[in-house]
Specification:
Oligomer: single chain
Structural class: alpha+beta
Strand content: 25-35%
CATH architecture: Beta Barrel
Number of domains: 1
Shape: globular
CATH superfamily: Small protein B
Number of strands: 7
Largest sheet: 7 strands, antiparallel
Amino acid sequence: MAKKPAEEKPIRYVCRNRKATHDFELLEKVECGLMLQGTEVKSLRAGKATLEGSFARIENGEVWLYRAEIPEYVQGSWTNHDPKRKRKLLLHNRQIAKLEAEVSQKGSTLIPLALYFKGSRAKLEIALARGKKLHDKRQTLKEKDAKRAMSRASGVRRGRA
């Protein structure tokens, strides 16, 4: 009996790290799972989390997420979690080895971009990134403004021709 084609599971975003694209040059993106406690999942389903200032680090062949805040679940009791605890990220060994080789280069780091649910599973998108210098940030803003001005002048933005 033939298998049915795999359907795309719906993605529901909990939070995004919008400042990451401004502060870093993104080299490669990777989707990974998270090891979470029960109250953390409930808090995420309520749409509460913050990735600002968080980062990932590889230690002893495992990838860990630091400084990501998932607030305590309101209806939780003594079983509530620590909001800023480090969380293990779930990746294949070959993915970890590849990331470890690239992070060992000077100036590269792992930063989280988005936290979301894919179907019923919590996923985190991390990126291998290199920090931008101040002049790079200014150049990016100039390019964005120029692109916006060109689209405004041509009238394409709102469907005007």
